[in-house]
Structure formats: structure tokens, C-alpha cells
Amino acid sequence: MIIASNFKTNHTRKSTREFITQINNFVKNNSLDVQVRIYPALTALDSFECEKSIKIGAQNFYPTCKGSFTGEIGFEQLEEFGVDSVLIGHSERRHILKENNELLVKKFNFAKEQGVEILYCVGEPKEVREKGIDAVMAYILGQFDGIDLDYKRLVIAYEPVWAIGTGLTASNNDIKEVLKRLKVNIQKPLLYGGSVQVDNVGDILNIKNCDGVLIGTASWEKENFCKIIDTAQKIRRVKL
Ligand code: PGA
Fold first, then answer.
1. pTM for the whole structure
2. Are 217 and 227 in contact (CB under 8 A)?
3. Is 195 in the pocket of ligand 1 (CB under 6 A)?
4. Which residue stretches of the chain have pLDDT < 70?
5. pLDDT per position as a tens digit, 126-181
6. Please, are residues 73 and 62 in contact by the beta-carbon 8 Å criterion?
7. What pLDDT sits at residue 167?
């Protein structure tokens, strides 16, 4: 089970360090073994001493080791901090930063060559959801065009665009149906993301085929994130 926190454009170097230290102590003192991922702002990356189950990843990178790409970060810079997990395809990068499939495939292939864990995000906008489950699946499967689903360090996050940062969580039945259909084609861990909260994370993690969650807003407070990790740890792997 993977519990991931995406800081997006939040936290400073100082508060990131405090957050990671507290989460690490919580995991260590309670001997927890849930897999934890934290994706801080790139400026707050550093060499953190963490338990084996915790990885500090990068929210973004440019598909290069180094070069002339003003404002971008390559793998030479990420490697300085031992980054071993990256996010690709997050809806904010697709929709706000206009990253298209071609660039996402380039990023994916580059990260794959580096051998890092890839958390690849997919999800439909509201107008597609309104057309029903077949339209949703066609849209999501299209987002896998050119993506190597056999990559051994691939993790998928299903995040409906309309549920991200809006407080609107997809219903448990909707999540269950999408994950069930994804599992037919993809034998990789499947996470759900989109307004996951301290109060609903238990129900979501109990959904069949749900192998974890990717959380924004509700994970930015240390205490909340600890509660979420604690809930995840307690959930039995015997699912619905
Ligand atoms: P949210 O963000 O939890 O604030 O909805 C989720 C995400 O963007 O991964």
C-alpha cells in the first residue's frame, strides 16, 4: 500500500524539512511499513535521512540529464538528492502547464531509462465523466498511449480532474468501477487521488483493487498526514 503526498506549490525548505522529520519519526517510532511517498517543491529537495519505506520524490523534471533548458531541472540535479521516484502526468501539468502526450511519453521514457519509480497520473475531466463509464475508460486508456505498462517500477494514480482540489471526491462505486476496469489491462499498483481526506481515506483504501492514495490538500498538515498513514497501516489487506 502506497500513501503519497503531493505538496504542489506549498511549503518552504524549512517547513518541508520539519514535515519530513516528523513523518519519519512517526513511521520509525510506530514501526510502520506502509510505503510513504512525499513530493515536495523542487526547491525544498535535500538529502533527508529516512526510513526505507519512505521515499522523497520529484513532482517534475525535464527529460534530460543536463543541458540548456532554462528554468527546468534535469536528472543530474535530482540525483544530487538521491531522488528515486517521480510524478508524471499530473492533471495540473497536463491542463495548466499544457503538457501533451508527446512530452509525457518523452518524460516517461527518460525516467524509465534512469530506472526510477514512476507515479503516472491519469483521470478524466467533468464533461467526460458526465458521458458515463465507457467514455471515462476510453479517455483514461488514451492517456496510456505510448506508455510502457510493463515497466517494473510503474505505479498508476487514477485522479478524476474534477475531484482534484475541489473537495468533491469520486463516489466509492465510481472509484471501484474504474480501478476494476484498469486492473484488467494493468497489473500495477493502482492509487486513487482527488480530495482524499482524513475522514474518507479508510473507505477509499478498502475499495477492491485500490493499492493506495495520492493526496494533495489534506496531506499538507503533518498531523493529518500521520493520521492518514496510521489509517492505512490499520486497514487489513482482505478487501471488499
Ligand atoms: P487533492 O489533490 O487531494 O487536493 O484533491 C490531489 C492531487 O492533486 O494529487
1. 0.96
2. no
3. yes
4. 236-240
5. 999 999 999 999 999 999 999 999 999 999 999 999 999 888 888 999 999 999 99
6. yes
7. 85
Q: What pLDDT, in 10s, does the model give residues 70-83?
A: 999 999 999 999 99
Q: Is 200 in the pocket of ligand 1 (CB under 6 A)?
A: no
Q: Is 102 a catalytic residue?
A: no
| C-beta 6 within 6 A of ligand 1 | yes
Q: Length of the chain, please?
A: 240
Which whole-number Å values give the CA distances from 33 to 37, 111, 200, 210, 218, in the listed order? 12, 26, 21, 17, 21
Q: Which of 90, 99, 117, 124 is catalytic?
A: 90
Single-letter amino acid, residue 84: D
In sequence order, what are the residues at sequence separation of 6 or more whose Cβ sits closer than 8 angstroms to the Cβ of residue 148? 108, 109, 112, 154
Q: State residue 21's pLDDT score.
A: 98
Query: How many angstroms is it from 37 CA to the middle of ligand 1?
Result: 14
Ligand 1 centre distance from Cα of residue 80 (Å): 27
Domains of the chain: 2-239 (3.20.20.70)
Q: What is the DSSP secondary structure assignment for residue 162, as one 8-state letter?
A: G
Please give the distance, rounded to the nearest whole angstrom, from the Cα atom of residue 208 to the centre of ligand 1: 21
Give the pLDDT confidence score for residue 236 in this predicted structure: 58
DSSP assignment string, 93-148? IIIIS---HHHHHHHHHHHHHHT-EEEEEE---HHHHTT-HHHHHHHHHHTTTT--
Q: Is the CB of 214 under 6 A from ligand 1?
A: yes
